Amino acid sequence: MKKITFTLALLALAFGVDSCKKGCTNPKAYNYNAKKKKDNGSCKLYTSVTLHSIDIATIPARNSHGHLWDDGYDGDLDNDNTKPDLRVTFSAEGGYSDVSSSTFYTVEPSNVNKTKTLTSPLSITDWENKIFWAYFYERDGSYYSPHYELIDSVEIRPFLDSDSDKFRDTLEISSGSISFTANMAWNKD
């Protein structure tokens, strides 16, 4: 009887230790566990990531010629000739884009403090390899005949393979003098 009990105890221990080593070993899965050594088929991947909005903090104070954005331009929309009128559009690799026509007038470059919500949120399914783009423009000209000067384009890479928190809903981005927070949602189905 003691021999059977001892054998059962050894089997339970062996199964328990072995099952503790099994789990999701795919680092691209949202239920990844670095402590697991053997994959048990339980990995779950997000199906897509959606960009909803960005919170813009800063943009360059001067254009590519070193001048203030509206310096000497008589087509300034708000006629203040000092601060940029900002338009932001978006695209996702794969051809989808959001080019809504809203403009933020007379923004302070060092403290923009504006949220640009996408009219149609953009999603990408191949989130490990694809990215979103944000395009920042200074707008001048008339309301009916606008002129856009590209400030810069900035990539938004949703999947941070080297980061311990790979699937962030908010992502702080800084590129040159442009800084903003991208607001995203990771989709399971």
Mean pLDDT over the full residue set: 83
Shape annotation: elongated
Low-confidence stretches: none
Do you know the CATH architecture of the largest domain? Answer: Sandwich
The N- to C-terminal Cα distance equals 52 Å
Order of strands in the sheet with most strands: 6-3-10-9
In percent, how helical is the residue content?
Answer: 10-25%
Number of domains: 2
Give the key terms.
mainly beta, Immunoglobulin-like, 2 domains, four-stranded antiparallel beta sheet
What would you note in describing this structure?
By secondary structure, the chain is mostly beta strands. The radius of gyration is 25 Å and the shape is elongated. It has 2 domains: 2-39; 48-187, C2 domain (Immunoglobulin-like, Sandwich), CATH 2.60.40.150. The protein is built from 1 helix and 10 strands; from the N terminus they run H-E-E-E-E-E-E-E-E-E-E.
Topology (SSEs and partners):
Layout: H1 2-20, E1 22-23, E2 38-39, E3 48-58, E4 86-92, E5 96-98, E6 114-124, E7 132-141, E8 146-156, E9 170-175, E10 178-187
Parallel strand pairs: 1-2
Antiparallel strand pairs: 3-6, 3-10, 4-5, 4-7, 7-8, 9-10
